[in-house]
Amino acid sequence: MNYNELITAAIDAKLQSYSPYSMFAVGAALLTPGGTIYTGCNIENAAYTPTNCAERTAFFKAVSEGHREFTAIAIAGGYVDQDGESDYIYPCGVCRQVMSEFCSGDFVILSVKDEEHVQETTLKELLPHAFGMSL
Ligand code: THU
Question: What is the pLDDT of residue 72?
Fold first, then answer.
């Protein structure tokens, strides 16, 4: 599968990041089985704990618009070095748990350094033995 559009959407979504406290801007782009992309950015708060990660922003936008199945997410961002480059970042534990609510173990997670450098993994690899209720 070609994830180029998803990767570019995550990089673009980073531009919307509201991160004046950490200066750690993150963008995410979430793909539905039908090919719809929902983007998200991290949104911080002066009280810190209300902060929402880019991944969860994308998930909550999508779920609130009726989607409950997803195939992949691309994540881009982090601190920028002197050359203007950022490193690969991976979702935090809370975001992994939110992913496991709606996604199976083969859900693809793309860590994006830039368009040419992408690391691909799965939810099962990042969250083995996930907690879940049998609905
Ligand atoms: N953050 C994300 O948005 N996604 C991640 O995968 C890791 C962390 C945000 C939360 C906070 O606004 C900032 O990055 C620093 O933790």
Answer: 98
